[in-house]
Amino acid sequence: MKKVLIIAYYFPPSGGPGVQRVLKFAKFLPEFGWQPAILTVQDGDYPARDESLLEEIPAGLPVHRTPILEPYSIYRSLTGKMKGAAVDVNTNYRPGTKVPFSEKVAQGIRGALFIPDARVGWLVHGLPAGERIAREWGADLIFSSSPPYTCALLGRGIARRAKRPWVFELRDPWTGFLSAPVRHGPSKALDRHLEKSCVRDASRVVVAWKGIQRDLVGKYPDLKTDHFRLIENGFDPDDLAGAEPVRFDRFTVVYTGSMYGVRNPGTYLDAVARLLKDGRIRAEEFRTVFVGRFGDEVRAMFHRPELKGTVEEVGHRPHAESVRYTLGASALLLVVDDVAGSEGIVPGKVFEYLGARRPLLAVAPEGDVADLVRKTEAGVVVDRNDMDTMANTLAAWVAEYRATGTVRFGGRDDEIDRLSRRGRTELLARTFNEVTA
Q1: DSSP track, 33-68
Q2: pTM score
Q3: Helices (H), strands (E): how many in the chain?
Q4: Which residue in 369, 363, 368, 417 sits closest to 390, CA to CA?
């Protein structure tokens, strides 16, 4: 087999969708002629941890962990947050929200000093360790997965030192993305330079959704189209096959993942409140369960008096348990960020939603998510401001549940079956083969 060294900050015991993507690549690459090894961090300051994922690391996979200089303890001190508190869900605000002064100071420091991101301290230990591993292990290729974008600098640096080709992956856009820190002057120029040089230096740039490719083609129109490779996320049927669904005693909508700032359930909850007020549904027969990590603004929405008894916040759960909630749902809720430019965002969890084969309510703008849901016929796409359609859809599903005890899933199995992680990994292996041919 050929050998690929994968650089990834997010790897078990970290949790989250970025972990799933890299973990599944590592699982399936040997089937397509590539033996992976992982370079990751030791004791990373992860937004979420999932110790159970350690058991899913393929047997025999070499995993190299190096120290990293993490600055988030300083950030928490500046903003008065407790040690270990998640940073990401409370640093993205909706437009018009009053941001505390301490938060403004911390964000200013982040934007001015931590370029391309707060993980840049990993270069100190990661570069020499990666070069040594690449040479001694005999890597044929270096593959890095971002964010954090420091992984790109690390992948390029290791590839240059070890004289190996480098494939660079973006799971989210780099500069100008919705969650990117605000930068000015030299900091902004340096960040854009780093993105531009990495995109140009890579043998191929893999992107996880079409919107990233459109962003890069717009920025760098002189690069050939085949420089970019779209390899979307997917789901692993093995994760779903052995999971026992959570059993609910009423019609239950389930949301899994993170919510903060412009990604929030405000209008969905407005629709539920309207149905309750109008008597079209009863509190004792309806529930929405939110599984994941949520910003303070979002958590306040869960406790609106008119929704009493119909909203349950479960909090972050290991991936396997989150899958159980997904499988047991009467219907699933997907919410895409409420901001201009979000039409290209495709959250990784939508593929696992589709694999669970439960009716999907996608609160999303016209764009890539809407196209995917309609192509698979997996549910209903509704604009954030269209509460009538939202309420009518929920009322119809509740009525079906009253009559039958379930809600029928009408999705297209043939389209959904094509979205497997194994198939996505085959595309990645083909890209590696082209680069090393």
Answers
A1: TEEEEEEEESS---SSB-GGGGGGSPTT--EEEE--
A2: 0.89
A3: 16, 13
A4: 363
Q: What is the pLDDT of residues 156-211, one digit of tens each?
A: 999 999 999 999 999 999 998 766 777 788 989 999 999 999 999 999 999 999 98
The answer to whether the beta carbons of residues 390 and 267 sit under 8 Å apart is yes
H or E segment at 419? Answer: none
In the numeric block, the tokens 């539920």 are attached to: 272
Identity (one letter) of the amino acid at 239?
D
For residue 381, what is the enclosing H or E element? Answer: strand 379-382
The total of other beta-carbon atoms located within 10 Å of residue 35's CB is 18
Domain 2-71+114-234+421-436: which CATH number of 1.10.240.10, 3.30.365.10, 3.40.50.1980, 3.40.50.2000: 3.40.50.2000
11 vs 25: CA distance, rounded Å: 12
Nearest alpha carbon to residue 56 among 234, 327, 231, 239: 239
Single-letter residue type at 193: H
